[in-house]
Amino acid sequence: MTSLPEGVRDFPGALDPDAQAALVADIRAVVEKAPLFTPVMPRTGKPMSVRMSNCGPLGWVTDKQNGYRYQPTHPVTGEAWPAMPPSIVALWDRFAGYEHPPEACLVNFYAPDTRMGLHQDRDEADFDAPVLSVSLGDDCLFRVGGSTRGGKTVSLRLQSGDVLVLGGASRLAYHGVDRIYPGTSMLLKQPGRINLTLRRVTKPS
Ligand code: MD3
Ligand code: FE
């Protein structure tokens, strides 16, 4: 019996197939306006294997010179991020349990050989707000630990339609994606996985 770290709430199968397909259609429209870009590590400039876009007033970006941050515009096109589709805002209202609206929805696209190393999300000013994650497409092996590096971790297979809420003590937990299981979902019509990460960035005034 493995239990999730304190503050992690998971809602396996929260979204039915129609809701998943509607989200994918909305995300495709977002990515048409704000194309996926390849983020690079600060200082080294080493490209990450995940590709990203955002919607909402702020988006998470990174480059060699300025590092990880949120900004209102796409790093390549210079355009404002597309508005967050109502279908995505509705997920925050349903699952986040936080009275202020989300400001950023990061769209991560994982091709079959993509991984994301263990890291903390700490580029936001508001750690009181939870982070909400939605999985679409192929399954992945997700790993979450405590708020210090090197502690014990718990692995979880995330499937299309699963929602995770990371709040409270888990807000600064180390987490990452160890692998994608290509061909485990038919949702995207191509192998791979999409994760939506909804966040509050600024402290509510
Ligand atoms: C646990 N994305 O974009 S989402 C990220 O599947 C990120 O794309 C992963 O980590 C993905 O930063 C994981 C689940 C998640 C998001 C934020 C967390 C788990 C978290 C913050 C604290 C603890
Ligand atoms: Fe993260």
Essential attributes:
205 residues, alpha+beta, Jelly Rolls, six-stranded antiparallel β-sheet, four-stranded antiparallel β-sheet, 2 helices, 12 strands, 13% helix, binds fe (iii) ion
And the CATH topology? Answer: Jelly Rolls
Global outline: globular
Give me the side-by-side strand order of the main sheet. 1-10-7-12-5-2
- Helical percent range? 10-25%
Low-confidence stretches: none
Structural class: alpha+beta
Summed up, the helix count is 2
Which architecture would the CATH scheme give at its second level? Sandwich
Strand content: 25-35%
- The rounded distance between the terminal residues' Cα atoms is 42 Å
Order of helices and strands: EHEEEHEEEEEEEE
Q: Can you identify the CATH class? A: Mainly Beta
> What ligands are attached or bound here?
N-(carboxycarbonyl)-S-(naphthalen-2-ylmethyl)-L-cysteine, fe (iii) ion
Whole-number tally of structural domains: 1
The biggest sheet, with number of strands, parallel, antiparallel or mixed sense and barrel status, is:
6 strands, antiparallel
Radius of gyration: 16 Å
- Could you name the CATH homologous superfamily? Alpha-ketoglutarate-dependent dioxygenase AlkB-like
Secondary structure: number of strands: 12
> What value does the average pLDDT take?
97
